[in-house]
Amino acid sequence: MLAGGHSRRFGDANKATAVLAGTPLVARAVDAAAAATGRPPLVAVQTDAQRDELAAALDASVSFVRDAPGYDGPLAGLVAAARRATADSLVAVACDMPFASADALDWVARQAGDAAAVVPVAGGAVQPLHARYATAPLAAGPDTDARLVALLDELDAERVPAAASPPSVPLAASLTNVNTRRDLAAARAARRAP
């Protein structure tokens, strides 16, 4: 679970703790990750203050990890999680994905085969924050320019079209993320829609 961002586009509040249908966004993503993996998630943060704020918003059992030094953005969180993980692979999900689905995360993970990473592609864009990564290459420290997209190239990631998911897997909804207050309003409207 990646939760170490600054929420700059969201305003002066942490989007991870914004509430949708009575539940903080981070809790929704944690629940999906836990259901997909059967394990308590590792939540990557930059600071102790972020850890404390997220811990107060969560009822679930999680372990916090501090972003790995020498890396920036989500890659720092992935490397830190890989170094702490005991499993052979990680299911990554961002804290701002309010409709993250265990079924969608599981479907993506099962597309990997022997690939070191598998990432969905939707609307022509890769979605590296809703993906599966082999633990060992991340724990060893990737040779990237600190961009997550560069990691995908380094790992020769399997890219799977979101449209290839079966109708029973809500992958398109699971990829929805909240960056702004307008995005949160849209998610709230979508949640109320029949």
Q: What is the correct CATH architecture?
A: Alpha-Beta Complex
Name of the CATH class:
Alpha Beta
Unreliable parts: none
Task: Please state the average pLDDT score.
Answer: 87
Radius of gyration: 15 Å
Please name the fourth-level CATH homologous superfamily. Spore Coat Polysaccharide Biosynthesis Protein SpsA, Chain A
Helix content: 25-40%
Q: Biggest sheet: strands, sense, closure?
A: 5 strands, mixed
Distance between the termini: 29 Å
The CATH topology name reads Spore Coat Polysaccharide Biosynthesis Protein SpsA, Chain A
Approximately what portion of the residues adopt beta-strand conformation? 15-25%
Globally, the shape reads: globular
Descriptive keywords:
alpha/beta; 194 residues; two-stranded antiparallel sheet; 38% helix; 9 strands; five-stranded mixed β-sheet; 8 helices; Spore Coat Polysaccharide Biosynthesis Protein SpsA, Chain A
Characterization of the model:
This protein is of the alpha/beta class and 194 residues long. The chain contains eight helices and nine strands. The strands form three sheets. Strands 5, 6, 7, 8 and 9 form a five-stranded mixed sheet that branches. Strand 6 (117-122) and strand 7 (125-126) form a beta hairpin. Helix 1 crosses helix 4 (102-110). The chain is globular, with a radius of gyration of 15 Å. The mean pLDDT is 87.
